[in-house]
Specification:
Length: 200
């Protein structure tokens, strides 16, 4: 799309993003394995309405990386190395947040919001600091992709779309959690912010 300005990028940033994606895929496969290994209760309920908001989140992330990539920086230039460092830091944060959150959730982890009779309210790991670490992880991924691909201008559209999908998904999941855990969830929500510790 020629009307969207492209930032020149370097191969180190693209490599950092690719390595981060590989790490994220491994963490996702491990999370799915842990989720499947848990016992399935007879009254488990998958909340498929949140699939719509998963798609909206995915659209926002996809838009952050949409368009041609202009590889023009000398791989050893200061700008290329700084870009790679920022991308690597964001991807490290994204993979760490997702992996540590999915590990804390254990068999409670699922792609779509659900309740199960043996479920527990998770308040450990990154959930002790923020209520939605996996969505923060996805936001880090989205920004890292935009920087690595030279599409930072795309964030002007991608971020609002991702934010709407995330907000609607969070609202839906909080209904599920409040129904399952009642006052325990209310106390947790009063103590721990959704996305940024002590702020938001």
């Amino acid at each position: 799309m020629p009307f969207i300005p492209l930032d020149p990028v370097g191969l180190p940033g693209l490599a950092a993003f690719a390595i981060g994606i590989l790490g994220g895929l491994i963490a996702l496969l491990l999370a799915r394995r842990r989720g499947r290994n848990g016992p399935t209760s007879a009254d488990s309920e998958r909340r498929n309405a949140s699939i719509v908001w998963i798609v909206v989140q995915g659209l926002g992330i996809g838009l952050a990386g949409f368009g041609p990539i202009h590889v023009a920086l000398d791989p050893l230039s200061l700008k290329a190395l700084i870009e790679a460092g920022v991308v690597a830091a964001l991807m490290l944060a994204a993979v760490w947040l997702f992996d540590s959150a999915s590990r804390a959730m254990g068999r409670n982890w699922a792609l779509v919001a659900r309740t199960r009779s043996d479920g527990q309210l998770v308040e450990t790991g990154p959930f002790a600091l923020i209520r939605n670490p996996i969505y923060v992880s996805l936001a880090c991924l989205m920004v890292a992709m935009a920087i690595a691909y030279g599409h930072t201008a795309n964030l002007l559209v991608a971020v609002p779309i991702f934010a709407v999908g995330t907000w609607m998904r969070v609202r839906h999941e909080e209904v599920v959690l409040r129904a399952a855990f009642g006052p325990a969830f209310d106390r947790y929500a009063a103590r721990v912010k959704r996305f940024v510790p002590g702020v938001l």
